[in-house]
Amino acid sequence: MSKPYEKETICVQSGWKPKNGEPRVLPIYQSTTFKYETSEQMGRLFDLEESGYFYSRLANPTSDCVAQKICELEGGVAAMLTSSGQAANYYAVFNICEAGGHVVLSSTVYGGTFNLLTVTMKKMGIEVTVVDPDAPYEELCKAFQPNTRCVMAESIANPALVVLDFEKFARAAHEHQVPLIVDNTFPTPINCNPFLWGADIVTHSTTKYMDGHAMSLGGAIVDSGNFDWSAYPDKFPGLCTPDESYHGIVYTERFGKAAYITKASAQLMRDLGSAQAPMNAFLLNVGLETLPLRMERHCYNAQRVAEFLEQHEKVAWVNYPGLPGSRYYGLAQKYMPKGTCGVISFGLKGGRRAAEEMMDKLSLAAIVTHVADARTCVLHPASHTHRQMNDEQLKEAGVAPDLIRLSVGIENVADIIADLEQAL
Predict the structure, then answer these.
(1) pLDDT tens digits for 66-125?
(2) Prediction pTM value
């Protein structure tokens, strides 16, 4: 067997494999439907007896090629694309946790994810226990209940920049016979592979670094294939008992290691419909081709900017895992030795008012909701992305009132620093 490709090569070469005379570049299959010669052929697709394409809400060749590329980058067995990162996180949890279930959730996850689980999914009958990601193992284990179905966390929290201790969380999840789901958006698979450290399922907002240009919304779910669902049929009946909406198929029996993604795509996507558009998948693929180059530059620039801010007299504090003084420096060196991401959080000595005034004076860096693309941008989470949280929830999420989230782009780092200097 030949040696697997390195990630740089996967980003360029994997996914689309053109045959003789076919387009070199991944085509956009901009079609809602696909033709078959006989009714029997179509029927076999609807019964999941054959793989193929018949309606783009369920599967599309462009999207499948891009999902396969992301799957290879993460080292998984199966993957799917969704219309957004929010949809990916929702599907990832709801695929195995239904009404009456319980989720253990890291307190520092992105505000949208926190709201999804603690508010919206609570209305669906799913309970959540929020835990401090830095809590000792013994305390973490106290959060589990008999009806716990998964643990969810972020590899690097947005915007708190907490680096997850994967081994601690994976050990706790597996000790209680449930999978660990990790949102790996910020480091991307270029800088971090959660499966190597015990995570079972990975999600992404592909809208961020993977796309890289703030052009297309998208999400992805990747399954490691390592969690044995069939060992706990009482916990995961959706995977281990007959699905009457597909003529009694048992996903674990029919699809083996692909059971989780098959159920998510064939059942949840069928019924909820958050499919990524073929055009968005095409744009995502273009971004993926340069992902390793961009992540290297993002990390280089962010390190320089973090060091500049750390020395500035008007800056009260800086949080970046690449700084030796960061409380997460050790975890970052262990789990992400090539670098973390391009996002920095910091606060000013003048507090919240000074943060707002400084942001208004920036010229190169734009105030936008987005994060993690080629352009340097800035946000005040307490006023924007996390404004639905009260002060206590903000504190749990690692979001101080004066916290500025700076997403360092791939411009010349001297220009980025000069812009910050004049604004400060």
Answers:
(1) 999 999 999 999 999 999 999 999 999 999 999 999 999 999 999 899 999 999 999 999
(2) 0.95
